TrEMBL record:
This is DnaJ homolog subfamily C member 16. The keyword Repressor does not apply. Its main location: endoplasmic reticulum. It comes from Acanthamoeba castellanii (strain ATCC 30010 / Neff). It comes from the Eukaryota. InterPro entries: DnaJ_domain, DnaJ_domain_CS, ER_Co-chaperone, J_dom_sf, Thioredox_PDIA6_C, Thioredoxin-like_sf, Thioredoxin_domain. Keywords: Autophagy, Signal. Residues 139-149 have a biased composition (Gly residues). Residues 1-32 form the signal peptide. One of its GO terms (cellular component) is endoplasmic reticulum membrane. Residues 35-97 form the J domain. Pfam families: DnaJ, Thioredox_PDIA6_C, Thioredoxin. Residues 139-173 are annotated as: Disordered. Plays an important role in regulating the size of autophagosomes during the formation process.
Amino acid sequence: MERRTTLKVLATFGVLVVPLVLLLAFAPPAQAGRDYYDILGVPKDASQAHIKKAFKKLSVKLHPDKNPDGRDQFVELSNAYQVLSDPEARAKYDRFGEEGLKKGQGGGPGFRFNDPFNVFEHFFQGGGGQGGGARFTFSTGGGMPGGFGQQQHHHHQQQQRQHQQQQQQQQEKLYDDKGEITLLTDSNFEATVLDDENSIWVVQFYSPSCGHCHKLAPAYKDVSKRLRGMVKVGVVDGSVERGLGGRYGIQGFPTLLLFAPGNKRAQTPEVYKGARNSDAIAQWALKVMPSFVTTLDSYKTYADLCLGPDSSTCVLLFTDKKSTPPLYSALSRDYKDHLTFAIVRTAAADAQPIIAEFAPEPARMTPFSGDSLSYLELRRWLAKFARSRPSAASGQASRPAADAEVHELTAASLNHICPAESSTLCAVAFVPHDKLADAETLAMLKSLNLKYSNDRFVFTVADEQKQHEFKKALLEGAAEASPQLVVWNAKKGRTVAHEGEFGVDALSQFVDALVGGGKRWTRLASSPASLLA
């Protein structure tokens, strides 16, 4: 949103949205899959020199750095070259076709393709050799007199070890768990991504040895910062998580997948094919952002939506833009059960009566006056106006104000405060025994209960000595402190601990980051509920 965009909240509170075929030996085999010879543009009796020449020419032409729209063709070309440059793999392909080659027909394991970008780099760095499986071969000097070949062999091994060490160092530097990017593995992918039906997820499959992955990293990190809270961003080391890569048909690195809101287990994620810069990736991710924004095309529409006796608090965006900003759509998604979001196109003639309504700003209107139109700042501001109304999906209203009181968490009170079958986020403040009734601590937790009631948080207090085993189980290896806040999602069996100052500002920032997707959940091996005393 730009300078001519104004965001206002109307405080109009009311009562508060295949058959088997047998062939004769003389018949040509039925080859299922792609024609690798056709992809390379060579005849079936092409020599290795002919195949290499064709690959050299086409790979430069189709490389995504030169031709962003040619990524799929580049991968196909690399796969074709890897097979046809390997005599053994080529013989199997000629007999059984692509599918038979992959399935290992004719004996031996199925063919495994290398990363197409690595194949490209090896080729132009002088490898130019076979690409089947792990069959890249380089000269080590042969068995020349005087043991020269052996020396070269050891030298090559040393170079390989150095290269592996460099790869490991690069991997450590590429992505870590300290930023907004979530490190995904086979063990946490389902709980973190697939079970998160409300969020948009962008997931990059990469390899530490992939030069293009390193080039993409700065832009990818920028995407995670720009979309913080609106879109969740993760990475998978495809060189390690091969099963996960196979599940999604990953054939090269880097590959970006987009998981839209909804049942992620049933959907096929979209593969990114655009330019490798943060602007293009961000726009691609935001295109699936759901919107719960109503366009006000007349004064009557405005009055019915915002001034009726059953109207909830209205958030109005005045803008001369023709499209709805993704940031505004993201806010409407987050508060769809608590606020009504609408947009007024200031250039439209029918919008003038609505604009006139706000010529002298009425007392019931509260304009946004923050320093920046950032997602997190706007979200915090809107939280002050949110008033829960029954959700169409759940049929439940939010906790009444009286329930903002802070209760001690024990085995006896667990089902009342944090029932396992609910989606409540149980924020447990572990304090020393003599602080259980501390007025200042209870007042702080009560204020947090009120502030985050619309986000399903319940703040409770627990005796850190009495409930020490329960606390240790929740921390799951995280650093222990006193006092300390730990958020527990009992229904999904996940937890995240606050590390830092135990004060209202620090805890608010922690919860805001958690709500905005900036904190990483840890999956618990088992429920710790039985450890409560």
